[in-house]
Amino acid sequence: MEISTLAMYHCLAFAWYFFVAYSITHVKAEERPSEVFLYGGQWKYLTVLNLVLQAVFYGVSFLADALRLIKKLRCAKCVISSRDLLFSVLAFPVSTFVSISFWTLYTYNRELVYPKSLDGVIPLWLNHAM
Predict the structure, then answer these.
(1) What's the total number of domains in the chain?
(2) Percent of the chain at pLDDT above 90?
(3) Which end of the chain lies in a sparser environment, N or C, as judged by fewer CB atoms within 10 Å?
(4) Which domain holds residue 16?
(5) pTM value?
(6) CA distance 94 to 50
(7) How far apart are CA 17 and CA 21, in angstroms?
(8) Count of CB atoms within 10 A of residue 85's CB?
(9) Would you call 98 exposed, middle or buried from its count of C-beta atoms within 10 A (0-12, 13-18, 19+)?
(10) Assigned domain for 116 exists
(11) Where in the cell is it found (predicted)?
């Protein structure tokens, strides 16, 4: 795949994850069930932390692609190695764990991970995007 195509993909993925993370952090406070967001708010949930992690990863990936396009090789090597480390140590394992555990528990017993009281607060598209 060409670097410019890859840069466009990483830019769009970064924009998507940033938008989803922004959307979840701006859920109206008066509509939130108090028992769900007690102690730590939404930042205690691994799904929200995973969204921020994915946004950071795709931001670093886009930066690496942009540096490769403008031929800043010394900076690009450092950013690329950071991107690879971030992907292999955090982004891939955390996102795999979050998606497998969430959807397994959701299938088994929905109330364990996503109570019905959240249906009116978090839209269906946002739940799926997380």
Answers:
(1) 1
(2) 44
(3) N
(4) 3-25+43-129
(5) 0.83
(6) 7
(7) 6
(8) 12
(9) buried
(10) yes
(11) Endomembrane system
Q: Evaluate whether residue 35 is within a structural domain.
A: no
72, part of any domain: yes
Measured distance CA(83)–CA(79) in Å, rounded: 6
Q: Which residue do the tokens 């939404």 mark?
A: 42
Contacts of 83 (CB under 8 A, 6+ apart): 57, 60, 61, 64
- Residues 19-64 have pLDDT tens digits of 998 888 777 655 555 555 566 667 777 888 999 999 999 999 999 9
- Determine the length of the chain: 130
Phi, psi of 33 (to 5 degrees): -65, 130
End-to-end CA distance of the chain: 27
